[in-house]
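Attaching the record inline, Q. Sequence:
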Amino acid sequence: MKSAKSKWLAYTVIVGLIPIVARMLTWLVTSSGRVTPFTASDFVAFGLVLHISVFNEWEHASIKGAGMKNVLNSISLLFITLYGVLCALNVVAERDPGLVDPSLMFFISAGFSMASMALGVVAFYYLPRVKEK
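Structure, as predicted:
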């Protein structure tokens, strides 16, 4: 792989999707209703993988503007913290299923992971253009 973009796509996005793809394949080959095709915890794992890579990229980038790097790192840390909260809520939901709404958890986790993917695209496709020379 030649560019950082293709490495990020292969190493981060595809590897981060492994839990989701594995659950989908399991759902396809098992009896109907035994396995759910998607869960919030899979999207939480995917989002964490994305944000750790984004945080690492922003930490090592020379970005124009003194405060921009701090803002971008703060955004990643905020998302990582939110994923930690979602992970804790998933653990609570396993212990007491009535305490947390599973469909709401799924939609929040999926939405956060889509936002993380968008930030990852910005970090790896847009920011290299605005780095200091």
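The two ends are 24 Å apart (CA to CA). The mean pLDDT is 85.

More tomorrow.
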